[in-house]
Fold each of these.
Amino acid sequence: MAVHCSKWLWGICCLSLAACDPTFNSQEGEEAQPFTPVADLQVTEDVPSKRLSEVAGQPVFPSAKDADKAVVPEAALAYVGRYQVKISCEDAYVKCETGTADFILTLLPDGTAHRSIVYLGRVMAGAQMNYHLDYWMYDEAAHQIIVHRSNGVEIFYDIDDTQNLRMDLEKIATVSTVNQQYFSRNPLPAHAYYLEKSAD
């Protein structure tokens, strides 16, 4: 009995090892793919590189180059870009304890708005509070950018002559029942923050 069991176990082990073997081919008639050492691979495209010191600690957010096709109207394309402001942690809007936080809003030509808060060079913990994917539009009549959040809240930004943005707090707080209910339970920004457009 012991000999029979050991032969049976030996057979199971061999089958298991064969299944894990990357060179094992279960279908007859197929040729195994030849192994190519990394040293023999040729680079076919030059890729620009940066030193680690140039990118270390820098947050990576979508850029206007990341969105292939524009869906926002021609008049709105001038406002595509990255906008940023430093906000004191004394303002409950940014949900941090001490120091300052960078509030970053990136508007892409595909109509998406990427909203992030970066604190002390790192994105704050908790996926719910540090990065949000929203949508934006340009209201030509009011000369405002409107960010439509996934929860139905709308955030309004006045556009100045240099294409920087300033929060319209009065409109944000009162424009709709959704906004009123949301900001009755959550902090409204303490100031009408001025977001400067990045040159890149």
Amino acid sequence: MDSLSIPCQFTLKRYLPTKGCLAAGNGGLGQQTNGVGDKDGVIIVDHGSRRKESNLMLNEFVTMFRDKTGYLIVEPAHMVRTFPSSQFGSGAGLCAWTAACTCRMCSAATFHELGSCAGPQELAEPSITNAFSSCVQQGANRVIVSPFFLFPGRHWHQDIPSLTAEAAKEHPGVSYVITAPLGLHGLLVDVVNDRIKHCLKHVAGDEAECAACAGTGKCRVY
């Protein structure tokens, strides 16, 4: 049987995912023990963005996550391929995405601002492949891929398992687990409520902008 990654199965009971995650990788399928150990690497993967600032925010979150959890090996990763803005001059931005990601936005690749594209494609760094290798180089013998997504859509069902399986081929003997996305976790209620309260205080002039919207002027009354 080829190595396949099987994501966690969901249950709506109490809005939490089930405890059991099937692991996959070069050691085959098997139930893994609970908890992150010293030989586990964690990859937090998001979709990736044409905006460099958005991609850098994942790095900041990974630092926060590592500091708070105490996990030794934690790496960020992005899914998408991009054309580098350096190929197109100032103000062009990233002109197109390609099908490393299969969502409609990426596969359409219609974000042209300066006409037809030329030049090499690049992965928005770090890719899942690079993050996987970095975990192994730091001593991980199991890699836990945690999708920084809200719901179990196409990326979770297809893209992330495919990209992770490809990355694992380079590291025989290293297993991996793809965890559930954030989903209907009860703590997200607190996160959303906290963000709403903070933004309302900012609009009232009682709080500074948060890191997400700082400098954008988006958090205001329209």
